Amino acid sequence: MVSGEALDSAVDALAEEAFAFLERLVAAPSTVGHEAEVCDVFGAELAATGFDVEFLPIPEEIVSDPLAGVGQTSYAGRANVLGRRGRGDGPSLLLNGHLDVVPADSPEFWSSPRSSRPGGTAGCTAVARAT
User: Fold this and answer.
1) pTM
2) CB distance 19 to 126 below 8 Å
3) What is the mean pLDDT of the chain?
4) What is residue 38's three-state secondary structure?
């Protein structure tokens, strides 16, 4: 098991790579319904970090599921990115985040003040790379 201090040191050592990845994420189109390029960028980073990557199509019928949130646009052609590393019987860790963002000129879609969703995703990826 990696100690907290060792993990902190590893993350510090990977900061430049993490910021470069964040720059690639932010540069890719990612508004709701147009996430394919940012998903490709994220998938490539996961693969480079040693993950097996799958793109899971989002079924169109999910729009009628009341537990799935409010669909803002069609799910046709959209996918979730799944990365798996290791296949042991030990504990698992799930990192979950958003790559999509609402357009800056559409505050009616914001549920809270704007934030950098890709920033959290880049940070989690840096931790995964460090372990």
Assistant:
1) 0.77
2) no
3) 81
4) helix
